[in-house]
Design a protein that fits this description.
The protein is 61% helix and 0% strand. With 66 residues, the protein is mostly helical.
Length: 66
């Protein structure tokens, strides 16, 4: 499953979350880890997709392409 980058960015911005906040919520140890997701350089694990869907109040299907 590939993260829909534009959808993830829009959801984060609409909720007023910073990349650092979301990265911390997902348990990433570096500040750049979440920004790598939004730039397409990294893909989240299924576990982290689940956390992201919970944070944004959407289904995993809404966060992935296709």
């Amino acid at each position: 499953m590939k993260l829909n980058i534009e959808k993830a960015k829009a959801l984060r911005k609409n909720r007023g979350y910073s990349q650092v906040y979301v990265g911390d919520y997902l348990g990433y140890s570096t500040k750049s880890a979440y920004s790598q997701l939004e730039s397409g350089k990294r893909q989240p694990s299924l576990y982290r997709l689940g956390l992201l869907s919970k944070l944004y109040g959407v289904t995993v299907d809404e966060l992935v392409e296709g």
